[in-house]
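Board notes (copied after class):
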Amino acid sequence: MIEALLAALAGLLIGSFLNVCIYRLPRDLSVVRPRSFCPECETTIAWFDNVPLLSFVILRGRCRKCGKPIPLRYPIVELLTALAFSLAIWRLGLTAAGLKYCVFGAILIGLLFSDLEERILPDELTLGGTAAGILFSLLVPMKFGIMHLFLFSLRNRPIVISAAESIFAAGFCAGTLWLVGVMYEKIRHKEGLGFGDIKMVAMIGAFLGLQGALLTLITGSLLGAIIGLCYIWFTGKDASTYELPFGTFLSAAALGVGFFGDVLLNWYDRSGI
């Protein structure tokens, strides 16, 4: 339990950094310099006004200098990241698997809000996340997948098969989604998917493998169709021109598949429940 609480504290800090990434990366700004500042009055934020969650409550959700509201996204991101970290470490312990899902959760939360606000999925999170997923496949062997069949002769080398599964899932899912996008463009004569979505699916495949990535695609598409259409209907927007934040729905689906699928199921397997 202590480990989970410490993980939650680490998640709060990482969530605070994710808020910087969500604001700056889509704008091609450095995430290192300058120090955090108010987007409205551009005043540098003092350290005591930059404490995750606590500062938002003390300041009552407003900038100390100009009084403009602080977006609710800031405490939400910090809280979600803390919950993701604590769940991963609570169920998987201080292991490579626990670290893997902490990183995966942080990347997805960053992508979810970046796409929701700016309709941009930064390469630093998609391509960087793909590389991280492949590296983690060397530390945390993936469960049975299609490469276990093709590379059966290497069954005594699970790390090799795991890496191959991660790379194959990333390439196959990205390629399939790209093909769907091309076909949509040919039929509808307009772009249906951006390359950011394709690179994001590669990242998800690298972390979750083929089965997890395909389940994410199906779930994310259903979420996008249901919630997106309801939003368009309630707001009266033009369905033919409205740009649906598909990456947001993919992120939510991947969080569900990864944390409520892999993390919890792995824990149940270990505990014998």
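Comment from the instructor: The CA atoms of residues 129 and 203 lie 5 Å apart. The two ends are 19 Å apart (CA to CA).
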